[in-house]
């Protein structure tokens, strides 16, 4: 296992250096490194490491979500509340509709199989989007109108919505009946996640305050460990209560960090954010190399031109959904275009659930996995490059205002 971690870090950082020399986003280098060292290419990673791949990816995602919560200003989020809510489901609905209309013609799948494929592909990647939005918030770029805050909030809820629909369509594709009552899990999951996370944030802040009043100052490094442990517990709560009630662990983590930021002094929350920024350097490498390692490049080769066409057609549908979400806002054309670009990348969710239909023995399983893999390879770089290259041109620098 130690050799595998050495390979992950050295290959990931080496690829980052190489791709930055070529003026390309670091995330593409890490994904490429993961594909090369993964089990479907050179096979340099130990099976034990691959067996905990999802846990490693989730841990890294938790770190950046805490940092996101520590960067979010709730007052800014209120400015774009309606659009943020719409961004959490409308673009995904439009993209799924694109698959349901065109996949039967291009890929020969049935309508329900196309809906299942759409559910797999329609989730935006928080791993690609969240760190970039956090960076924009910290640089005060586009924050006056709440653009990065809106995208960050929408992307965090988007996955909750999509995963519930994925479970519903999977049941239908297997011949079962869809329980429409399961759709109630979407708002329940979001509300409970925010509530539990908020309560956790108050409790942790209370702990810090009590210690401070008794003359026992808790170091920032210790606070980081406490917050990280609490985030792990929140994610555990999600899986533990899943048979009984839906709770979004990811939203709970963000809510916890938001409350701690709201209650703490600005200097304290900044120190915590800086601490999480430092461990994100290692976590980012693990996250994207492991996502790359989950990509079976063989399925990309078998996907064909029709699959690529399907992905881009669905992205056009998605773009229309994003534009509708912006209706009635004060955003100008450039800011709306940036929102469309920021909502393109796929990676994390597709790597996690792309193979589920195949494992379930569905006839469409190989097609869904092929399109999911191709979706990661096409849209993760496209979205990352698009965000990095366009943010300075499309968003205002609010430090100057």
TrEMBL record:
Top-level division of the source organism's lineage: Bacteria
Swiss-Prot/TrEMBL keywords: Membrane, Transmembrane, Transmembrane helix
Domain (Cation/H+ exchanger transmembrane): residue spans on this chain: 8-386
GO biological-process terms attached to the record: proton transmembrane transport
GO MF term set: antiporter activity
GO annotations of cellular component type: membrane
Transmembrane segments: 27-45, 84-106, 112-130, 151-172, 184-208, 220-237, 243-260, 280-299, 305-325, 337-362, 368-391
Coarse class of the protein's main subcellular location: membrane
Any Pfam family matching the protein: Na_H_Exchanger
Protein localization: Membrane
Family annotation (InterPro entries): Cation/H_exchanger_TM (IPR006153), CPA1_transporter (IPR051843), Na+/solute_symporter_sf (IPR038770)
Membrane topology according to the record: Multi-pass membrane protein
Protein's name according to its UniProt entry: Potassium transporter
């Amino acid at each position: 296992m130690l050799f595998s971690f050495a390979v992950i870090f050295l290959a990931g950082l080496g690829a980052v250096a190489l791709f930055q020399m070529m003026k390309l986003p670091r995330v593409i280098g890490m994904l490429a490194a993961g594909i090369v060292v993964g089990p479907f290419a050179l096979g340099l990673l130990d099976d034990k490491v691959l067996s905990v791949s999802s846990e490693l990816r989730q841990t890294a995602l938790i770190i950046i979500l805490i940092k996101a919560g520590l960067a979010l200003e709730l007052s800014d989020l209120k400015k774009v509340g309606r659009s943020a809510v719409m961004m959490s489901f409308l673009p995904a609905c439009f993209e799924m509709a694109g698959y349901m209309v065109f996949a039967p013609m291009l890929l020969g799948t049935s309508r329900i199989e196309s809906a299942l494929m759409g559910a797999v592909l329609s989730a935006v990647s928080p791993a690609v989007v969240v760190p970039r939005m956090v960076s924009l918030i910290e640089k005060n770029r586009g924050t006056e109108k709440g653009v990065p805050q809106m995208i960050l909030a929408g992307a965090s809820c988007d996955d909750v919505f999509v995963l519930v629909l994925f479970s519903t369509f999977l049941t239908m594709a297997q011949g079962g009946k869809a329980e429409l009552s399961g759709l109630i899990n979407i708002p329940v999951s979001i509300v409970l996640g925010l509530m539990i996370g908020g309560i956790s944030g108050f409790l942790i802040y209370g702990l810090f305050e009590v210690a401070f009043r008794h003359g026992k100052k808790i170091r920032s490094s210790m606070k980081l460990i406490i917050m990280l442990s609490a985030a792990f517990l929140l994610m555990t709560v999600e899986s533990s209560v899943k048979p009984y009630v839906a709770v979004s662990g990811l939203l709970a983590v963000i809510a916890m960090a938001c409350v701690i930021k709201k209650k703490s002094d600005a200097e304290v929350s900044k120190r915590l954010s800086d601490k999480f920024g430092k461990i994100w350097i290692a976590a980012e490498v693990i996250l994207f190399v492991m996502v790359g390692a989950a990509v079976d490049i063989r399925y990309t080769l078998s996907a064909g031109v029709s699959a690529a066409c399907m992905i881009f057609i669905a992205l056009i549908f998605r773009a229309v959904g994003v534009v509708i979400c912006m209706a009635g806002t004060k955003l100008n054309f450039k800011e709306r275009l940036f929102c469309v670009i920021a909502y393109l990348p796929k990676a994390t969710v597709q790597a996690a659930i792309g193979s589920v239909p195949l494992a379930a023995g569905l006839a469409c399983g190989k097609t869904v996995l092929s399109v999911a893999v191709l979706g990661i390879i096409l849209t993760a770089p496209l979205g990352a490059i698009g965000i990095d290259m366009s943010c300075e041109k499309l968003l205002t620098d609010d430090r100057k205002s």
